[in-house]
Amino acid sequence: MPRPNKIRLNTSQKVTALTSEGALDRWQPAIQAAAEEDNSISIYDVIGEDFWTGEGVTVKRIDAALRKIGNRDVVVNINSPGGDVFEGIAIYNRLREHPANVQVKVMGLAASAASIIAMAGDEIQIGEASFLMIHNAWVMAIGNQFDLREVADFLAPFDDALRDVYVQRTGADADEVAAMMKAETWITGKKAVETGFADTLLSADETKKVENAARPDVNALRRVEANLCKEMPRSAARDLLNQIKGKPGAAPEPAMQDAGDPEMSNALAALLDTIRA
Questions:
Q1: Catalytically annotated residue among 115, 130, 135, 265
Q2: Res. 146 pLDDT band, cuts 50 70 90
Q3: CATH homologous superfamily of domain 16-209?
Q4: Which of 36, 78, 85, 259 would suit a FRET pair with 13, their CA atoms being 20 to 30 Å apart?
Q5: Could you say which of 20, 112, 115, 130 is catalytic?
Q6: What is the per-residue pLDDT for 148?
């Protein structure tokens, strides 16, 4: 099936895109491709630059990978909880512009912005136990009633554009897809093939589990941040988390010194439970 059209990107409105907490809960970062070739691009992280690690999948990184691959066919391996929808659209557009064949392999999860990136493939394969997740653009905005109305008006065309990409890929009714996005819909590998979100199931021997790929402490920070941002500006949420970590007013190091610290992970999990209560 032909790739859907490019998405026009206009991000003049000041909003902050966040990774869905539900996607972070279900994400298993240890699931990766069994083999990576020199024409492969791996998307095994949140979409957009990650404040907590200094990593993340950005359009700059994808541009660099595509320049290295040149005009050859490309394989994009995805296991991502999503993230910055605007960065995801930019990455989708880059892959859409690639002159050669783009094969996408969803192993584990392609949620939110990552599901849009997946739609850039000429061919999409998905693991039987993998998931796509689609929903309306998920952002944080602060202001009075007029500011928030402006943000809602700003987001509506993005939701329409994302819906149109899914519709072009699947041939489904636009109202049906819009309802799926509004409800935040999780789509199994088998269902994705049946409904046109993917072409074929990915063979189980094409994936593997990578030891130490999971970063439970970092993921806990992301989840707590997503909850705190419902009550306060993102900068305030990050400052509060840095104070909890013992680094008041400081951004975390790109490679966090306490990464994998069970005590920190347990403390953050307890904080998350308190916020949810």
A1: 135
A2: confident
A3: 2-enoyl-CoA Hydratase; Chain A, domain 1 (3.90.226.10)
A4: 78
A5: 112
A6: 78
